[in-house]
């Protein structure tokens, strides 16, 4: 199993980023995908979910209306569009599938700062 997240960076409040997660080693199209984040000194928290097939999504209230999760099963990838970013969105972002067991990718760091 391998997952690599990318797309993070430094952005000003109100800005946007598009995060990507490319996976291998399991049957991607058969699994649901979640995105999590971990702020500096904080706990890892769930923020978004998408079903296999992409027909249904869920979001934590903290990101609802600003973030959009999607997937491209042909490329075994998931994406998280981050809009209207706030300072409190600063964190390392991870994608996760139940098929990954205890494995976590390296994550990608998003820093929101003026």
Question: How would you describe this protein?
Answer:
The chain is mostly beta strands. It is 0% helix and 48% strand. The protein contains no helices and 10 strands. The chain has strands at 2-6, 9-11, 17-24, 33-38, 44-50, 57-59, 67-72, 77-82, 91-96, 108-112. The strands form 2 sheets. A 6-stranded mixed sheet has the order 2-10-9-4-5-6, with no helix packed on it. A hairpin with a 4-residue loop joins β7 (67-72) and β8 (77-82). It is globular. The model has no long low-confidence stretch (mean pLDDT 96).
Concise description?
The chain is mainly β and 114 residues long.
Helical amount: under 10%
If you compute it from the alpha carbons, what radius of gyration comes out, rounded to the nearest whole angstrom? 13 Å
Low-pLDDT stretches: none
Helical run tally? 0
Structural class estimated from helices and strands: mainly beta
Biggest β-sheet, characterized? 6 strands, mixed
Anisotropy-based shape: globular
Question: Helices and strands, in N-to-C order?
Answer: EEEEEEEEEE
